[in-house]
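## Example record

The block below lists the input lines for one assembly entry, exactly as stored, with component labels intact.
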Amino acid sequence: MLKIENLHASIGENEIISGLNLEVPAGSVHAIMGLNGSGKSTLSKAIAGHSDISVTSGNIKLDNQSVLELEIEERAAAGIFVGFQYPVEIPGLNNMHFLRTAVNNIRKAKNEEEISASDFLKAVRKIMQEIGMNEELIKRPLNTGFSGGEKKKNEILQLRMMNPKLAILDEIDSGLDIDALKAVAGGINQHRSKDNAVLLITHYQRLLELVQPDYVHIVDSGKIIKSGPASLALELEEQGYEAILK
Amino acid sequence: MENSNNLILATPIQQRHLAEYHLYSDQGTGCLSSPILPVTGESNEGVTLSFKKNAPISAGPFLKVKTKDYLTNFFRDEKNEPLALWQNLERLTGSLFLNIQEKESNLFVNFDASQSMAGLLFIEVQEGNCLNLNISYHARSPSSFLLFLDVKQNASVNITTKDDVNNALENFLYINAKVNHSAEFNFFSYKNSRQKSLQHIQVELGDKAVANAHELVNSSNGSNMDSHIIYLHRGRETLGNQNVLQLIGKKSTAAFTGKIEVSENALSTESYQLCNSILLSDDGKACHRPQLEIENKEVKCSHGATSGKLDENALFYLQSRGFSKSQAEKLLISAKVEEFINQSKLASSLPWLIDYLKEQDLDLNE
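Predicted structure tokens for the full assembly:
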């Protein structure tokens, strides 16, 4: 589903991604781990099409089609979703209005009919209950005044409602208490299917205990230096990066 | 006060209970002075200032208003139609004095002006009464509307204005309010101009008086908008808030002068000022001029100003959810406006403005 070929990407003059290769087939969960500043978040932004990131060479393909020429919203319509480490607060923008428009943007791109208000509300309520999210939050301005855990749950709500082919979750576990982590992990597991793929960017094994990855990749200096099964994350937890990077 | 190329309107000689005013033309026609000799009476439905040809000055009546909903129209012709431009008429002024007698009343003012028209409205809100004042300003060419308020003890006045002057070359809205002991002045204005306009609000606060002013400015398509808010804290324990949001489009300028003047006797004053400008193009300009003159030490005052483009992170977030860039920009602007409106004490009476702005589908990048 996702294929990254010898990707080089820069922010300004600085090359952050330096020849990264990665293949994430449908139905799989891949975890990306690495030290701070190793290029994990830059990778997620490069896939999503952030204007700060210049792809200088290589390719990013979704279903064998390059996405490099697509605008951010076109990549979203093609099925790429980013769950943010720091979701933005937009006071004045109603969460429900935002989410329904976002869902309909994607449906429209797929030539599907808009979701009706009642079907939308039914689906939103169901997911909110499943992930333990206070129903009041859908009526409030987007992420405004939400706790760290509530913001992450709101990202999972969007993920479930938009049902993308590829979900890139950038440190979705940061700042979560144990209960919130379980709820977020539960939401990711419910999203998993044979038709989609998940790329989890994380620092911690604790998320990977709840969302079992098929592969773990360790990124250093903008490229993958080691890949392996889920047990690699455990190894990393026990030995630390220094031992692995040697 | 400079108003237009054609017209310079001087501050009235007596700011309240106006006795006379002057109108000058810079085209050398000289000074025109008109004493006002108001007629007294009562009015229960509304009043229309109408004019006959060749009678360019109306010395309006002094009316006691004893009704809940009251409509005032500036200006109409003999058939009660909006006054058309009369040839060879350089200026036209009309004045009206209202004394609000009801406990709570709603006053609607339609100011419908064409060339060089000036409307003067004098309102006295009696002790303990509440006046909700809605001013619609439709200007088709240079014009001025001047409002003088005397808000008596424990009274309150809530003013909303919508100033839609797309086709007007220049216009001027002036409000001068005296807010007496424990009285309250709340103000919200929406200005949408594609030309040049000036708004000047001056509020004098007596003991324990409160003033809240919110101005939403949409300056686009090469327009030049200037607004002034001046609070004169004269009494003790007064509270003032000035809050301005400017949306500045292509080749447009929005300037804000906010002045907080606290006199020596105005102890325990609190007064705050904030102006945020959103630059929607590379060639828009924002100008902020905060002025604080504080003459005693028992005061809490602050001023703040920001100017910048729409938040890039928020745009990226929205685009990553399938919103196009222009859709995301419009959504962020609407969100800013709605947040600003909701901060106003008059928010509950402003849903019409939110609906109106949605109908306009603001193309603020113009």
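Chain B touches chain A at residues 311-314, 316-325, 331-332, 334-340, 342 (CB under 8 Å). DSSP finds three helices and 24 strands in chain B.
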